[in-house]
Specification:
The protein is built from 6 helices and 9 strands, in the order E-E-E-H-E-E-H-E-H-E-E-H-H-E-H. It has a single domain, classed as Spore Coat Polysaccharide Biosynthesis Protein SpsA, Chain A (Alpha-Beta Complex), CATH 3.90.550. The strands form 2 sheets. Strands 5-4-1-6-8-7-9 form a 7-stranded mixed β-sheet, with helices on both faces. The chain is globular and about 40 Å long. It is α/β, with parallel strands linked by helices and about 230 residues long.
Length: about 230
């Protein structure tokens, strides 16, 4: 656990393409998406925040160590509103955390080890050399490190330098409207490729009904593999 890092799970999406369900509570092989993400990333930081969008926090069961956080002023700006709300929450609590590790709740295979890798990268490597239009090349010190797999960038799964986005709560309340990709264009971000992983995308997320079956197959195969490896 790194006390310089705060973790926020972005769970406030409406799941419209899935019929308006609460994604966090969808189960993959008997375990909810929220439980899977908590297991993977929950120990990455000293402060743990669950962003619940505009939904009733009582619909979620993350555990007592998690701070429940609604979007500011009922914003409807997607994941960026959740990140802004997490920053505001840390500011209200006078948190000493310097970095915010954000993860989408529908990314049940995303590795918690990303936080440490990103922490090393955010302070010491060159920019992305133009590989992604949404990520700037620049100096060795960066404002954010964003996960990527193949040619796809996953801006919800990222490590953010809190000082660099401390303006977000006020700026979004002040009616300036831009998405999470727009934010990346305004700051100095770098990507962290997560290729490998046995040829499977660690950033895989759930947007359609068919994805539930695909994730179930993947979880079953992975759990069987590690069960055999451990002799269980």
């Amino acid at each position: 656990m790194n006390n310089n890092i705060a973790v926020v799970i972005l769970a406030g999406g409406g799941g419209k393409r899935l019929g308006g369900v609460i994604k966090a509570n969808l189960k993959i092989e008997g375990t909810s998406l929220l439980e899977r993400v908590i297991k993977n990333v929950g120990n990455a930081g000293g402060v743990r925040i669950l962003s619940t969008g505009n939904m009733d926090p009582g619909l979620f069961r993350p555990g007592p160590e998690w701070i429940m956080c609604n979007d500011l002023n009922n914003m409807t700006m997607g994941p960026l509103a959740g990140i802004a709300a997490a920053v505001a929450c840390l500011q209200r609590r006078n948190s000493d955390a310097q970095y915010l590790f954000s993860v989408a709740v529908d990314s049940p295979f995303f590795p918690g080890s990303f936080a440490q890798r990103a922490l090393e990268k955010i302070n010491g490597e060159h920019g992305s050399h133009g590989k992604k239009n949404d990520v700037k090349d620049g100096a060795n010190i960066h404002d954010a490190v964003v996960a990527s797999y193949g040619s796809q960038l996953y801006p919800t799964n990222a490590l953010w330098r809190i000082k660099s986005i401390s303006h977000l709560p006020h700026e979004l309340e002040d009616t300036s409207r831009f998405g999470i990709k727009g934010l990346l264009k305004r700051i100095n971000a770098i990507e962290l490729p997560l290729d490998g992983h046995g040829g499977q995308n660690p950033c895989q997320n759930l947007n359609h009904v068919a994805d539930i079956a695909a994730m179930s197959d993947r979880a079953r195969t992975t759990e069987q593999h590690f069960g055999q490896k451990d002799g269980n």
